[in-house]
């Protein structure tokens, strides 16, 4: 049975269509794998075996009729941020205790419409706030990767840590994730998986618990570039229920794989060479440049001068929106309520008990930067920075650059409970230094594994593209994937 | 917003205090519920009076992951209202979040418009009067802005011994907040402003204007000053829900502030509540307790943008507004300004009048509507919507006078019958024998009878010809009022030998 879980989506798709395997067999294989591994990896916060088998059975019936959608019978995991009808949807927060929505997010509905099978809900940082999955109310998900000769448990990154861990450990064929400041790309890099944050507006946000509405965007984490392309094709759509979603046709992303990058102009932003960046990251980046040159691409140095302001500006805009988005968790209508002597007391007690430290910190930062007297100095200035960051990219693209190659993380995966990071939230925020710029500019970015560091841990590279040119990202990432190979953790769980 | 003084102090509007005259400065923020089938950002119904929490969508209840989608009809209604206020329409406006916690505010923020409203500056002409000379005074009141925002739900504190309940039926219903400039100088002006604003939105069909259902309510800003001096510190009286209360609240508040100032005190900027039972205002919260609403643009909504064609299309479909209608009644129907003002004061009255006046003499129709119909309705304590006499019935009565089937006097009786019992005026006249007698033979006989029976009066009339009126009266009486008065008059004079 175990080899069934080793199949990528494209491989499983062929075998299902050919009736070499059934969706029920495949689903059972994953359910067994989850059973065996979840105690160690804590990737799932809820497993839905009955629902999964029921969906798989229906898929088999359709496949037997020669029918079936693009993902017919493919078992997927869903980040706990996506609303799933009648199923645990808590953004891994205590404050949403017991919440089971009566609605299905547009993105997951798109997947089910294409025949995908739901295995359960995946661990994440509480309300998607974090870079290590340690802020989850359900405890941290664990990275399936370990450093050579070490037994230390590592973080899978965040916020989509459960998604990345589950995909890397073959506890699902692919997973949904979301990216507000790097929450798809950083965990993908930490786990040797592929993650794409599409252009803002490519996927509907309807039914996704909001963190920072102007930055949040859904995307897949998958085992390879092809699987990511297959998943995004299904997830993306315009949606009348989300007026920030964009009405553009969703191309067949898979078709862009194998297309040549010859003559493409790849930009290397000099501002991404930050102080204190490990040499092996720099080397990996250079390796990426060589691979693309070998494939016929032209590589040019570019300047994105406002890059250094992106992170501080992000940590103003995102908390500001979060402080407002999370106001609805007040103990009145759903989730956790801690009674108090009056309504204000009830609010305070419920929110104090229901939100973890990191969420509380960001609500306070956000409330502060929006306050009278501080709005202009913080929020408004951050929005101006945002415009400048956007312009940096526009100018680079205008000058003829087709895509940008950059590192994705300043390091490989770190230990769970890292004292230095726990003591200084800003150090943790620095994890996002290469990723937040895209969210601020609304641009698409893909994280593709490019090698292992000296500890034997995966590292990724990031390709940044023009708005709604995800095809360029897939074909370029595919070139890197072909050159770098794929990376699978040794099983220890 | 910068406050600009647009008025010159007018002695007849000043309030005398113990230490001299004072001038009241009034500005209003009126919340008008948009007439629309569904809410501002959700598909839930706006129907009034439904069971609690039956008009609630996932968006209205602020379920996780829900997103607002703008209702185009509400946007149109706001633009129509802006056009009715002769205001600047902003082709690009922005929705902001106004953040505060309250159980009847499920999102924890109200979606409103802060810096960039859909409608900018406009104006309303209010008409005060008539004064003793019968003159009206037209005053222009500036509109600062109109913006769209969500209504909140309703907390109910009388349903459970220790808990409060929340009804979200109103949550998310579209409101227009219409902000005036501080251009009003008396409670009469404020009442006239509210009356006129209500009339305009009713003409436009953008708000039903029913203040008793909460469809329109006003926050009234009041300050006082010595004539010609700078504006004083203002107090805001929240949620006043009748025109009469607006007047009372202003009168009370102005005198309260004058008393404090004349005692050497100063006014604290604060929010106050009007208590209609006691007829007074009381402090609700001071400036220090004011919320910091942390406004910022709602990232779930793109800027609201439309082109000139969108506005032009709405403009071309706009109904005639009260000011234009009044001018037309005066110009084309020859009505007095007073009569025209009365008729346009409510859209329903104007519609009624125009229906009666269609194909008939305008002045006659106006007299009947104003003196007879509105008089009778007023006496019966009814509004125009509840009139028992339809325009067709009233028109029928007027037609019967015109073709001399009945006399004007009989017509009054006929109106009363129709008002109280209903029925077709022509049939009533027929069945009850109210027709005017025009047969000269019959009238001649009646005249002869009266002359024969009253020799003394005949003697007197020779000396004093005006006594002919007495004979006319007697004849009318003997014929039950049905004789044609002109015919009686002519015959009496002829028989008595009175020169024309």
Q: How would you characterize the overall build of this protein?
A:
- Chain B: One of its GO terms (biological process) is glutaminyl-tRNAGln biosynthesis via transamidation.
- The complex is a heterodimer of chains A (493) and B (500).
- Chain A is of the alpha/beta class and 493 residues long.
- Chain A has 17 helices and 11 strands.
- Chain A has helices at 2-5, 9-17, 23-41, 49-64, 106-113, 161-168, 185-191, 225-235, 279-294, 307-325, 343-354, 357-370, 376-398, 419-423, 425-429, 436-441, 470-484; strands at residues 44-47, 75-79, 117-122, 174-179, 194-197, 217-222, 265-269, 298-302, 403-407, 445-452, 458-465.
- The longest helix of chain A has 23 residues, at 376-398.
- The mean pLDDT of chain A is 97.
- With 500 residues, chain B is α+β, with helices and mostly antiparallel strands.
- Chain B has 3 domains: 11-312, no CATH class; 319-431, no CATH class; 440-496, Orthogonal Bundle (Arc Repressor Mutant, subunit A), CATH 1.10.10.
- Chain B contains 15 helices and 16 strands.
- In chain B, strands 1, 2, 6, 7, 10, 11, 12, 13 and 14 form a 9-stranded mixed sheet that branches. Chain B has a 3-stranded antiparallel sheet with strand order 5-4-15, with no helix packed on it.
- Chain B starts with 14 loop residues before the first strand and ends with a helix.
- The model of chain B has no long low-confidence stretch (mean pLDDT 93).
- The chains are: A alpha/beta (493), B alpha+beta (500).
- The A-B interface holds A 82-83, 89, 91, 96, 99, 101-103, 105, 205-210, 212-214, 240-244, 320-321, 323-324, 326-328, 330, 332-334, 343-344, 347, 367, 370-372, 375, 379 and B 58, 61-70, 97, 99, 101, 103, 106-109, 164, 166, 292, 294-296, 299-302.
